[in-house]
Design brief:
Number of strands: 17
CATH architecture of the largest domain: 3-Layer(aba) Sandwich
Largest sheet: 7 strands, parallel
Radius of gyration: 29 Å
CATH class of the largest domain: Alpha Beta
CATH superfamily of the largest domain: P-loop containing nucleotide triphosphate hydrolases
Bound molecules: adenosine-5'-diphosphate, zinc ion
Number of helices: 34
Strand order of the largest sheet: 3-4-2-5-6-1-7
Distance between the termini: 60 Å
Number of domains: 5
Helix content: 40-55%
Shape: globular
Length: 731
């Protein structure tokens, strides 16, 4: 299919104007009916690679995905774009599953998501044979390999799909790139004659930074303050640490939830949901948090403690900025940090494994100490390089830092002397404490407060001294041992220099967080592919658009990003479209979303431009009742035939939430509907009314929280609707 046609489909179905790097050839390959192996980093845009062919090829595409928690969000996102999708997994009751199956058989479903255990049931495969199956996508395909980090025995059965559907092209997708895993996938799935697409691992929109452990708490607060209301994950070492940090952050005005494997399943699920919904922006978590997190607008991933390996670190930071907007990955680090891991590593019985674990940890420590481009180091780990390697990446703290030549002669002499005086048996941290005249007990116990070098530095702080020490290591004047407790010693070259009394200048980082941040934003924006972020957008308008998105998402019971991504909102806030035509030109706005949300957004933009104060109330309380559109009129006709909301949703292939939104619109437009007949049981309705009465702004989430799990969003909305209708009638 020619590029222009593919792009037309991209806009029509997903609202995007351009393909991300690598997507187009993968899509063309699938359209040509060939198998494909797709290796792309997290956030690269893998889903679109099979979603677009699914629509272009017609018939049904089966998507096998191990992450049950994600299926619903994926399906919601597709439906928001007007694409007919269903999922089948153990979370569905029988009736719902049966209905999805019937729709698939009737040819009404373009994408069907299923968990591998479902695929392993012979009954399900018989069912597949009754469908017009045109493409099979295997998400997280590395799960098939024992060499991967996430082997799932269930995945082995997928090879049978190949034998049972030999003519159907298959696409295997993963973010795990090792050659061994790749070969294994191709072999296990018998993908003969398969095209392989391995895209670069660089995530150009992510800024990598390492900050000193000293002052980590204050730095963390500052990072979160700069990003108020935006999503962040703070990875911690232990369960206890996540809980302590969550409490502390919450107490400091940054509402945070803890997440770790020790919490019960319900708490974990609810925490995930509240994070994905954007209701609680910050989660302090162990690495147990992440697999099911497909949130596109995470702006910050912090590692509060040292991770075990580069591989894990890269994966965890990869969760930031999937929407391609500039996002930050921060590691807090000090030289002694690896000690926290020793206890666990020492308990590994197998010698080889223990050795491997130490190696991996050492690589992480090297990363923390690195004085050259961090991105280059990370990518090299995966056998990848940055295109313009010479100048560095321009988007990590090392590359961004302004450097200036500083005469460090005096402080370097003091430092080397202190290393010698303390016997060359200590880490740089201890030496610095001596130089700074610290009164910690250990310095006293060792008698180091009696040394002539005690307290002789007052023009550098701990971090400054550390920088100087790093510079001396790089110059070969100071040597640092590897291992668990790195100590420093003065090299022969260092002794020679001390004698010579020559001047020494070092290229030192002039760290000014403010300028750094500004530069990175300029840079990050210029590098992203979503054009909108490169423009100036109206931040005040953006906030209003976010608030509107929140309400719409709330009303439909879906995560905010299902309505529009941050990137799209920025695009809207930059373009300020005045009409539907102009709005459709924004990347991320397709015909379906335009129809569904266009008017609401255009109204906010108009009011903003008129300088009118934006009402913080739901659309319904505005002066002019809105008109209903064609789709809502359709719903009204069906309501009048006496169909329930669930039935209408079913027949029309729309989410119940969408139908409910229609009903609300219809009621707001002042048209007669029999809201009472749609209500839940009276005793439930009463409790809901009571909860609504306690709410100030009528927002659903707090009401739902008050009521608990027995009540659904839909029920609450219906009662709210009935109350509004009553109020209007003056009852
Ligand atoms: P992956 O599965 O590779 O981690 P996703 O498929 O979840 O990544 O895509 C990440 C984000 O990028 C999603 O929010 C998706 O909507 C967005 N995206 C994908 N393709 C494009 C595109 N061509 N233009 C703009 N955004 C895109
Ligand atoms: Zn760099």
């Amino acid at each position: 299919m020619p590029t222009t046609d593919l792009k037309r489909l991209l806009k029509q179905h997903f609202g995007y104007d351009e393909f991300r790097p690598g997507q187009e050839p993968i899509i063309s390959n699938a359209l040509a009916g060939r198998h494909g192996l797709v290796v792309m980093p997290t956030g690269g845009g893998k889903s679109l690679c099979y979603q677009l062919p699914a629509l272009a090829r017609g018939g049904l595409t089966l998507v096998v995905s191990p992450l049950i928690a994600l299926m619903k969000d994926q399906v919601d996102s597709l439906r928001a774009n007007g694409i007919s999708a269903e999922f089948l997994n153990s979370s569905l009751d029988n009736a719902t599953a049966a209905r999805a199956e019937r729709r698939a058989q009737a040819g009404e479903v373009s994408l069907l998501y299923a968990a591998p255990e479902r695929v392993s049931m012979p009954g399900f495969r018989r069912f597949l044979h009754t469908l017009d199956l045109r493409l099979i996508a295997i998400d997280e395909a590395h799960c098939i390999s024992e060499w991967g980090h996430d082997f799932r025995p269930d995945y082995r059965i997928l090879s049978e799909l190949r034998t049972e559907f030999p003519e159907t092209p298959m696409m295997a997708l993963t973010a795990t790139a090792t050659e061994r895993v790749r070969r294994d996938i191709v072999e296990q799935l018998a993908l003969t004659d398969c095209s392989e697409f391995v895209s670069g691992f660089d995530r150009t929109n992510l800024t990598y930074r390492v900050l000193p452990r000293a002052g980590a708490w204050e730095s963390l607060l500052a990072l979160l303050e700069e990003r108020r209301g935006q999503s962040a994950i703070v990875y911690c070492f232990s369960r206890r640490e996540t809980e302590e940090l969550a409490d502390r952050l919450t107490a400091s005005g940054h509402p945070t939830l803890a997440y770790h494997a020790g919490l019960d399943a319900d708490t974990r699920r609810i925490t995930q949901e509240r994070f994905i919904d954007g209701e609680v922006p910050i989660v302090a978590a162990t690495i147990a948090f992440g697999m099911g997190i497909d949130k596109p607008d995470i702006r910050l991933v912090v590692h509060y403690t040292l991770p075990k390996s580069i591989e894990g670190y890269y994966q965890e930071t990869g969760r930031a900025g999937r929407d391609d907007l500039p996002s930050d990955c921060v590691l807090f680090f000090s030289d002694g940090d690896q000690r926290k891991h020793d206890f666990f590593i020492n308990r590994i019985v197998d010698d080889d494994l223990q050795y491997a674990a130490r190696q991996q940890l050492q690589q992480m420590v090297d990363y923390g100490r690195l004085q050259s481009c961090r991105r280059k180091y990370l990518l090299a780990y995966f056998g990848d390089t940055i295109p313009s390697a010479e100048g560095g990446c321009g988007n990590c703290d090392v590359c961004l830092a302004e450097r200036r030549s500083v005469d460090v002669t005096v402080v370097a002499q003091k430092l080397l002397s202190a290393v010698i005086r303390t016997g060359e048996r200590f880490g740089i941290g201890h030496v610095n404490q001596v130089l700074l005249g610290s009164n910690v007990a250990r310095v006293k116990e060792l008698g180091h407060d009696k040394l002539s070098v005690f307290g002789i530095v007052d023009d550098y702080d701990r971090n400054g001294l550390r920088d100087v020490a790093n510079g001396l290591v790089e110059r070969g004047l100071l040597a640092r041992t590897d291992g668990q407790y790195p100590t420093v010693s003065v090299t022969p070259m260092g002794r020679e220099w001390l004698q010579s009394r020559q001047t020494l200048t070092l290229d030192m980082r002039a760290d000014q967080p403010a300028t750094q941040r500004k530069r990175h934003e300029d840079r990050g924006a210029g590098r992203t592919s979503g054009g909108a972020s490169a423009q100036d957008y109206d931040a005040a308008l953006f906030e209003q658009l976010r608030a509107l998105r929140r309400r719409l998402a709330d009303d439909e019971g879906v995560p905010a990003f299902v309505v529009f991504s941050d990137a799209t909102l920025r695009g809207i806030a930059a373009a300020k479209p005045a009409d539907r035509q102009a709005m459709l030109r924004v990347s991320g706005v397709g015909p379906t979303k335009l129809e569904r949300y266009g008017e609401a957004f255009l109204r906010v933009i108009r009011e903003h431009s008129n300088g009118a104060r934006q009402s913080s109330h739901p659309a319904g309380e505005m002066a002019n009742p809105p008109q209903i559109n064609e789709s809502q009129a359709h719903t009204l006709r069906m309501l009048k035939q006496g169909l329930s909301i669930a039935e209408i949703a079913n027949q029309r292939g729309l989410a119940q939430g969408t139908i409910l939104a229609h009903v609300e619109r219809i009621a707001l437009a002042g048209m007669e509907i029999d809201a009472a007949s749609l209500l839940p049981l009276p005793e439930k309705a009463e409790r809901i009314s009571a909860a609504i009465a306690t709410s100030e702004d009528g927002r659903l989430a707090p009401i739902k929280q008050l009521l608990g799990d027995e009540f659904t969003y839909d029920e609450i909305r219906l009662v709210r609707l009935a109350l509004n209708v009553k109020k209007r009638r003056g009852e």
